[in-house]
Design goal:
Helices cover 73% and strands 0% of the residues. With 169 residues, it is an all-alpha fold. The protein folds into 2 domains: 6-74, no CATH class; 85-164, no CATH class. It is elongated, with a radius of gyration of 18 Å.
Length: 169
């Protein structure tokens, strides 16, 4: 990381913290990754927020405490929706790869998408939350024998592929 003016550095940290918080919630990164990120900033920056010091020594902190520190660092970042979209796309790539490898079922992927959309405090675009709700309902109907599995699986796969877009799966 190059030397950056303090106001620019603060904005960069806030934006990066917003993205890392969402990635942490989604399980794309873990506490150790957050600690390494904090350490990297501490090694190159001066006059940084105290939360970075707390994150740097967060090995014994709870998930809730780590998320709280990341939220505080992200305060004022004007990229929350972009971060959510980016992190959700990364999550979709992971789930798509697991599905294609046969490591998870389509039902499990649908349930995890629903959980992210409705059980976290991540604000996703409305079209994502609507699809996650719909596909979870479709698989519930499949399990009850009311609907066929194949159309739900095709819709899920198409949705995941659309999220991946130009990124490599």
């Amino acid at each position: 990381m190059q030397a950056v003016m303090p106001s620019k550095m603060k904005k960069m940290i806030a934006q990066d913290a917003a993205l890392r918080r969402i990635e942490f919630i989604l399980g794309l990164i873990n506490k150790d990754d957050v600690i390494v990120w904090a350490d990297e900033i501490l090694n190159v920056a001066n006059d940084i927020p105290f939360q970075l010091y707390d994150l740097s020594v967060a090995a014994n902190k709870s998930t809730k405490e780590v998320l709280s520190l990341l939220r505080e660092l992200a305060e004022g970042a004007d990229i929350a929706e972009v971060s959510a979209d980016t992190a959700f796309r990364r999550f979709a790539i992971v789930r798509y790869k697991e599905l294609e490898a046969g490591n998870v079922s389509a039902d499990e992927v649908a349930a995890s998408l629903y959980e992210v959309a409705w059980q976290t405090d991540i604000t996703l675009p409305e079209e994502y939350t609507e699809f996650c709700n719909w596909v979870d309902d479709e698989f519930a109907l499949v399990r009850q024998g009311i609907k066929e599995r194949q159309p739900a699986e095709i819709a899920l796969t198409d949705f995941l592929r659309s999220l991946i877009g130009s990124e490599k799966a």
